[in-house]
Amino acid sequence: MGSTKPYLAVIFIQIIYAGMILLSKAAFNRGMNSYVFVFYRQMAGALFMSPLAMIFERKSATPLSVVTFCKIFMLSFLGITLAINAYCIALTYTSAALGAASINCLPVGTFFFAVLLSVLGGILLAASLYSVLWGKSKEQKSMENGTCLSVPVQPEKERAHLKEAEATIAEPTLFV
């Protein structure tokens, strides 16, 4: 067979996940707020990973534009932070065993929502482009033919209709 290092790495990561879930559940049982816990967790991860990134990626890092930075920020805020918040709130109300079993469903949920949103986004984009382009082509054809899409207004009939409507409106009465 091949090397056993990848298998050992996966087992080690699963042990770390299980330990993190047990520590999280113990902290929640002692009364720690899940939002504060997530903040501390994210801050510890950032403090641990930032020096490693600076040491190992300093020479190969490309310049970061403001748009890319904003996209990374929104992805990290909406993606992992909200998922971890929801997970920790759920862990508060359930057991650590259920939390350990459900942690493996996070990639499946992420994939499902990515496909769902990309499909819905594609459908909405196609529908809006079709309606805009179809409307413009129909308008251009009507302009070329000299026909108008709207019904022409007949001012005499409209004025008579407005006078009838004004005549039917009674004076407002105040109830004291």
At a glance:
The chain has about 180 residues and is an all-alpha fold. The protein has helices spanning about 5-30, 35-55, 65-95, 95-100, 105-145, 155-170.
In DSSP terms (H or I, runs of 4 or more residues), the helix count works out at 6
Number of strands: 0
Strand content: under 5%
Spans of at least 5 consecutive residues with low confidence: none
Q: Termini, distance in Å?
A: 96 Å
* Cα radius of gyration in angstroms: 31 Å
Give the CA-based shape: elongated
| Helical percentage | over 70%
Largest sheet: none
User: Which structural class best describes the helix and strand composition?
Assistant: mainly alpha
The run of helices and strands is HHHHHH
Overall mean pLDDT: 76
Which helices and strands appear, and what pairs or packs with what?
Elements: H1 5-29, H2 34-56, H3 66-93, H4 96-102, H5 106-145, H6 155-168
Helix pairs in contact: 2-3
Organism: Prunus avium (Cherry)
Keywords: Membrane, Transmembrane, Transmembrane helix
GO molecular function: transmembrane transporter activity
